[in-house]
Amino acid sequence: MTKNNNLRPVEKLCKETKTPGYVFEGVKVFKGWATGKEVTEKDFCTAVKEFLAEPAGGITAVSHRKTLRDKSKEPADKPDIKD
Description:
Blueprint: E1 8-9, H1 10-16, H2 21-31, E2 38-39, H3 41-53, H4 61-72
Antiparallel strand pairs: 1-2
């Protein structure tokens, strides 16, 4: 298997693109990237843009409304089960 020369470690791309450390760490969690993950610069920049476009907490307005709507359908006498 040949290695793609366009792939670079995300840590190096973080420095090259002057991405703030807190944004970089958020992107890693958002994308599920481990330390040393190699991606193209285009994929790295796209991931940063996607991360910054997400609302804090990762809850979009649409998914939040759906969650609230689903909870409103639960019976009032449903016991609160905890693990």
